[in-house]
Specification:
- This is Ribose 5-phosphate isomerase A.
- Helix 1 crosses helix 2.
- It is globular, with a radius of gyration of 17 Å.
- 28% of the residues lie in helices and 29% in strands.
- The chain is of the alpha/beta class and 231 residues long.
Length: 231
């Protein structure tokens, strides 16, 4: 199901997409609702809007130290991911996304914890500008989090698959690992590739979200928000 939500207010695209996600959540939110927060500027806009709304819910769970700081600065309650037993809604930005809910994430180097929360969530909602909606994945190099000690064997394995891995400069994840941004991989079967990559020894997680696709996707532009609801 697809609908277009008109929005003529002079708002930035991040606010539009984040507002659409918040409006969807508030339709069913309760005092027991747990909200997962992604990582990045758009997710931080959502945090601000959530705090300003004053709606009552249980607590947030964060995908990164950066997001935890944003949650705390907004005065919202948070529990650690290690202590979280369930997530009702997870809201996060994306680097690329197909209209079937499969996305690429990891530009903020938090893909490991992001995927944990996305797979826990009853409802995964992505928020981004319309330029992130693509017909084919692969324009954005695929982020892969790996153990530092496994860099050489992982690089060789990725090259054998046709990939061109480059270590992200100056990047250490919250988990103490490094990120390889990989171009050149065949992304035509993202679900299969996601599993193949995670089977490489030394790979912690990769940025393909095919096993845990989005349930709703908000893509904003200067006119409003394109809202995709997926089965």
């Amino acid at each position: 199901m697809e609908s277009f939500i008109s929005n003529t207010a002079d708002e930035c695209v991040r606010v539009k997409a984040a507002s659409a996600a918040l409006n969807h959540i508030t339709q069913t939110i309760t005092a027991e609702t747990v909200i997962g927060i992604g990582t990045g500027a758009t997710a931080e806009v959502f945090v601000q809007l959530l705090a300003q709304s004053g709606v009552e819910f249980a607590h947030c769970v964060s995908s990164s130290e950066r997001s935890s700081k944003a949650i705390q600065a907004a005065g919202l309650k948070e529990i650690a991911l290690a202590d979280c037993e369930r997530v009702d809604f997870y809201v996060d930005g994306i680097d690329e996304g197909l209209s079937n809910g499969i996305t690429i994430k990891g530009g903020g180097a938090a893909l490991g914890r992001e995927k944990v929360i996305a797979c826990m969530a009853e409802c995964f909602i992505t928020i981004s500008d319309e330029g992130r909606l693509v017909e084919f994945l692969g324009k954005f190099p695929l982020p892969i989090e790996i153990l530092p000690a496994a860099k050489t064997p992982v690089v060789l394995a990725l090259q054998a698959m046709g990939g061109k891995p480059v270590q992200r400069d100056g990047c250490t994840t919250d988990n103490g690992n490094i990120i390889l941004d990989v171009a050149g991989l065949d992304m035509s079967e993202p679900a299969e590739l996601e599993m193949r990559l995670n089977a490489i020894p030394g790979v912690v997680e990769n940025g393909i979200f095919a096993q845990c696709p989005a349930k709703h996707m908000a893509f904003s532009n200067h006119l409003g928000v394109r809202w995709l609801s997926l089965k």
